[in-house]
Specification:
Largest sheet: 6 strands, antiparallel
Order of helices and strands: HHEHEEHEEEHEEE
Number of helices: 5
Helix content: 25-40%
Shape: globular
Radius of gyration: 16 Å
Strand content: 25-35%
């Protein structure tokens, strides 16, 4: 349960997922069905609001509540509530949760690029299939995300390009963002556990 942060380009997306996963809370009914929907996105927003409200309760014990969040809720949140904030056209978005891992398989269309690097611009411009995967853990109020894999159109992306994307799309909006450093889980969240198809959050 972390504030949604990274989206746009491969690394931007993984951040977003990490953020979305880290930001969810409160079991407000059964998780959504199979397909992304505005209803599933609204359910997740309600959970986020509940987490924020719980943090304001001074007499609550840490990790007093737990909640499960599904892949379809995460997909819905990005597709229905974050789409306009993404600096690229989002054609499709698929979240994959596994044991301590989160991944995004997506298609993006970049209408224009201006990284200052013509090679990077040539790679990023146009429509591309992006796959990003990383390890995400959270315990005792602290989280850590380790980027493991980024592929563009099936081709592994070198670290220098990842850094360029991160600096261009993430740093301007989130200057404190750092893929290499642990971070504080927000809103009184104590722990995060990822398993196939769902995330469990204690707050």
């Amino acid at each position: 349960m972390k504030k949604i942060g990274f989206i746009a380009a491969a690394v931007f997306f993984i951040g977003a997922i990490a953020g979305v996963v880290l930001t969810r809370g409160l079991n407000s009914g059964p998780v959504a069905a199979n397909d992304p929907s505005a209803k599933a996105a609204a359910m997740l927003q309600a959970k986020i609001d509940a987490i924020k409200n719980a943090e304001l309760m001074t007499d609550r014990k840490p990790a007093a509540d737990r909640v499960e969040v599904s892949e379809v809720e995460l997909e819905s949140y990005v597709l229905f509530l974050l789409r306009e904030k993404i600096p690229a056209q989002l054609d499709s978005f698929d979240v994959q949760l596994g044991p301590e891992t989160v991944a995004a398989d997506t298609q993006l269309t970049f209408n224009s690029t201006n990284t200052g690097n013509p090679i990077v611009d040539a790679v990023i411009g146009g429509t591309h299939n992006l796959f990003v995967k990383g390890r995400l853990v959270g315990n005792e109020g602290r989280g850590k995300f380790d980027l493991e894999e980024v592929r563009v159109d099936g081709i592994p992306v070198p670290n220098v390009l990842i850094k360029t994307l991160f600096d261009k799309y993430v740093k301007p909006k989130y200057p404190d963002a750092d893929l290499n450093q642990p971070f504080d889980l927000p809103w009184g969240i104590d722990a995060l556990s990822l398993v196939p198809a769902k995330a469990t959050i204690a707050y």
